[in-house]
Amino acid sequence: MPAPASVTLRAGCKVNLYLRITGVRPDGYHELDTLFLPLPEPCDLLHVTPHADDGIAFTCTEPDVDPARNTVVTAYERFAAATGFRPGLAVHLEKHIPHGAGLGGGSADAAVLLRHLAALCAQQSPGAAPTPAALRAMAAGVGADVPFFLMDGPARASGIGEVLTPLATGELADLGLAGLHLVLACPPVRVSTPWAYRAWDAANACVPGTMPESASGPASASPALPGNGSMAGQSAKSLRPCLTSESLEDRNPLSRGPWLTNSFEPVVFQAHATLRRTKEFLLRRGACAALVSGSGASLFALFRKHGTARDVAEALRNDNIAAFLHAL
Q1: What is the secondary structure of 136-190 as a DSSP string?
Q2: Which pLDDT score is estimated for 217?
Q3: Is 40 helix (H, G, I), strand (E, B) or coil?
Q4: Core-most of 9, 17, 134, 251, by most CB within 10 Å?
Q5: Which residues, given as ranges, of the chain have pLDDT below 70?
């Protein structure tokens, strides 16, 4: 069997169009309701070449990525354990998705390698090739967000993020997002996801096995999405503490949508004032909505006009904040 060719794999990122923590399990894991939107940039690059020895030889452009303990190596080892397929691969990860940004970079890297391994396995050892369901199970074993990156479009996630429901064609339009322009801002700040969960627990006086008061009752159901009247939701007024500016919220109808909220914002903004100021800047510059993605530190803003979005992205870059412009 000829050695596999060298390839470069692109791993895109995601933003959370909304994120609500709905409870804490007895094992300490948090129940979520969120909407993942994949974005092509920023993206990591995985340069994969044949390697003389079995197994994976991993290197990375970021010195603080442990070569022995990272999602790419974990994905390889889980695939090999499940299938017995252990091709010799040298994988060099060229990082462009920032750490601690809430963009799922590590999960995306793992997912693209799993896809590549599945394709190689189907070519070289067809009898060992995993089914799509088996590949998703491997992905979930690497991390809760990894199965999403095996998909090809936006999806709602519940449980600890592992229960995925793809959005049907047209549902993003039903949310009022069609034709908008998304600016992704990546300030040079890192937010640790474990820290964010601990801070949220402390702020909500939440212990494992309980439902925080803010998530109890009817408001704990999935947010009300336009065009989906079966989902109960919070009132816009109840979400105002999560918004930076009530006056701007009142002026921009989309930002009053009760689904546009992120449970992490209060604790993240309290610890990182620069992120709050970035959100305020985005709203002042005409965003019809702005929100932290995941646990931060990245933020996204939605604009109706391409020119406005382009100018805001340029202004962010002039302030040494990486920015990426996407059309929805």
Answers
A1: HHHHHHH-TTGGGGGSSS-EEEETTTTEEEEPPTTHHHHTT-TT-EEEEEE-S--
A2: 34
A3: strand
A4: 17
A5: 1-4, 206-259
pLDDT score, position 152: 85
Residue listed under structure tokens 């040298």: 90
Cα–Cα distance between 55 and 57 in angstroms, integer?
Answer: 7
pTM as predicted:
0.84
Can you tell me the distance from the alpha carbon of 125 to that of 15, in angstroms, rounded to the nearest whole number? 36
Token pair for 202: 């402390």
Helix 132-142 × helix 71-83 angle, to 10°: 140
| 109 has catalytic annotation | no
- Report the alpha-carbon distance of residue 44 to residue 9 in Å, rounded: 8
CA distance 137 to 318: 43
pLDDT tens-place string over residues 299-328: 999 999 999 999 999 999 999 999 999 999
> Alpha-carbon distance 9 to 186, whole Å?
22
Catalytic residue status for 14:
yes
Residue from 44, 145, 201, 279 carrying the catalytic annotation: 145
Query: What confidence tens digit (pLDDT) does each residue in 261-295 have?
Result: 999 999 999 999 999 999 999 999 999 999 999 99
In a 3-state reduction of DSSP, which class is residue 304?
Answer: coil
Q: Out of 14, 44, 109, 279, which one is annotated catalytic?
A: 14
Residues 6+ apart with CB under 8 A from 238: 219, 258
